[in-house]
Amino acid sequence: MPELPEVETVRRGLQPVMEGARITRVELRRADLRFPFQPDFAARLTGQRIVGLGRRAKFLMADLASGDVLMMHLGMSGSFRIGAVPVGAFHHPRNVERVNDHVVLRLSSGKIITYNDPRRFGFMKIVARSALDDEPLLKGLGPEPLGNAFDAATLAKACAGKTASLKAALLNQHVVAGLGNIYAAETLHRARLSPKRRASTLASHSGAPTDRARQLVAAIRAVLTEAIAVGGATLRNCRHPDGKLGYFQHSFEVYNHEGQPCTTPGCDGVVRRFVQNGRATFWCPKCQK
DNA sequence: ACCTCGACCTGCAAGC
DNA sequence: TGCTTGCAGGTCGAGG
């Protein structure tokens, strides 16, 4: 469940369970996800109290009482589920072991948090909080799109001089953090901007933001806010930690809508799909300019 | 310094 | 039915 709204939904699901709990046991079912686990990974977690669960870009950041931070990334196919130690003969379906359960955290509350990731593009890494500023995975990340630091001037500045397409720029986590393939397409459609347009056209010659930059910022904020409000999108049955589903896939206007009529009021265009930078892009050539 | 592409993995659906 | 192919919400490193 990977883009910002999905990661934020996961964070909100895990937060009440994790915060304040102590990790009593760490099970690694394999030695690596995308990278090998750090040699002291389990030891640094075991016995630690989780004091908070935050998010930066698509990373979940669990603050530990030790001063360490557990960084977690879901990659393309990562998901968490919350289970509980069975009481008596009662077994809950979410407690049943599944294939691709790679990490199991037992908490002092009796809750069990399981990380499942078939493709293993996700990863976990422990970093000292004092070393976060030097963490390569976070270095250079662009602003949070729902934060105060993200505005038309910032976006225009990040895109000034870029020969890459707007779509590529939105996928670039150094420009703005948290968008992925779905929300890049959806926000560009909302802003009526072509994914093929040069990113540099968000800035005037002097570097000041154009109206396009303002439209795009507004679209990004609106789409992400709406998506979070309905629990993100659920594709391929990837669920929330508590087993519930997101609903934003029903609000997609272009993603996976090839051949369907454009939803822009007054537009009679048809949604098209093409491959851009190796990834599917969905858009309406009629109203996105 | 940019930009694009291939590589990393598994699982599922469509097509033959 | 079974095999092959293509495709999937991400990111990094190599090479142009």
Automatic annotation (TrEMBL):
<dbReference type="InterPro" id="IPR012319">
    <property type="entry name" value="FPG_cat"/>
</dbReference>
<dbReference type="InterPro" id="IPR020629">
    <property type="entry name" value="FPG_Glyclase"/>
</dbReference>
<keyword id="KW-0234">DNA repair</keyword>
<keyword id="KW-0238">DNA-binding</keyword>
<dbReference type="GO" id="GO:0008270">
    <property type="term" value="F:zinc ion binding"/>
</dbReference>
<feature type="domain" description="FPG-type">
    <location>
        <begin position="253"/>
        <end position="289"/>
    </location>
</feature>
<keyword id="KW-0456">Lyase</keyword>
<keyword id="KW-0863">Zinc-finger</keyword>
<keyword id="KW-0378">Hydrolase</keyword>
<protein>
    <recommendedName>
        <fullName>Formamidopyrimidine-DNA glycosylase</fullName>
        <ecNumber>3.2.2.23</ecNumber>
        <ecNumber>4.2.99.18</ecNumber>
    </recommendedName>
</protein>
<keyword id="KW-0227">DNA damage</keyword>
<comment type="similarity">
    <text>Belongs to the FPG family.</text>
</comment>
<dbReference type="GO" id="GO:0003684">
    <property type="term" value="F:damaged DNA binding"/>
</dbReference>
<feature type="active site" description="Proton donor; for delta-elimination activity">
    <location>
        <position position="279"/>
    </location>
</feature>
<dbReference type="InterPro" id="IPR035937">
    <property type="entry name" value="FPG_N"/>
</dbReference>
<dbReference type="GO" id="GO:0006284">
    <property type="term" value="P:base-excision repair"/>
</dbReference>
<comment type="subunit">
    <text>Monomer.</text>
</comment>
<feature type="active site" description="Proton donor">
    <location>
        <position position="3"/>
    </location>
</feature>
<keyword id="KW-0862">Zinc</keyword>
<keyword id="KW-0511">Multifunctional enzyme</keyword>
<keyword id="KW-0479">Metal-binding</keyword>
<dbReference type="GO" id="GO:0034039">
    <property type="term" value="F:8-oxo-7,8-dihydroguanine DNA N-glycosylase activity"/>
</dbReference>
<feature type="domain" description="Formamidopyrimidine-DNA glycosylase catalytic">
    <location>
        <begin position="2"/>
        <end position="122"/>
    </location>
</feature>
<feature type="active site" description="Schiff-base intermediate with DNA">
    <location>
        <position position="2"/>
    </location>
</feature>
<feature type="binding site">
    <location>
        <position position="162"/>
    </location>
    <ligand>
        <name>DNA</name>
    </ligand>
</feature>
<dbReference type="Pfam" id="PF06831">
    <property type="entry name" value="H2TH"/>
</dbReference>
<dbReference type="GO" id="GO:0140078">
    <property type="term" value="F:class I DNA-(apurinic or apyrimidinic site) endonuclease activity"/>
</dbReference>
<keyword id="KW-0326">Glycosidase</keyword>
<dbReference type="Pfam" id="PF01149">
    <property type="entry name" value="Fapy_DNA_glyco"/>
</dbReference>
<feature type="binding site">
    <location>
        <position position="119"/>
    </location>
    <ligand>
        <name>DNA</name>
    </ligand>
</feature>
<dbReference type="InterPro" id="IPR010979">
    <property type="entry name" value="Ribosomal_uS13-like_H2TH"/>
</dbReference>
<comment type="function">
    <text>Involved in base excision repair of DNA damaged by oxidation or by mutagenic agents. Acts as DNA glycosylase that recognizes and removes damaged bases. Has a preference for oxidized purines, such as 7,8-dihydro-8-oxoguanine (8-oxoG). Has AP (apurinic/apyrimidinic) lyase activity and introduces nicks in the DNA strand. Cleaves the DNA backbone by beta-delta elimination to generate a single-strand break at the site of the removed base with both 3'- and 5'-phosphates.</text>
</comment>
<dbReference type="InterPro" id="IPR015886">
    <property type="entry name" value="H2TH_FPG"/>
</dbReference>
<dbReference type="InterPro" id="IPR000214">
    <property type="entry name" value="Znf_DNA_glyclase/AP_lyase"/>
</dbReference>
<feature type="active site" description="Proton donor; for beta-elimination activity">
    <location>
        <position position="58"/>
    </location>
</feature>
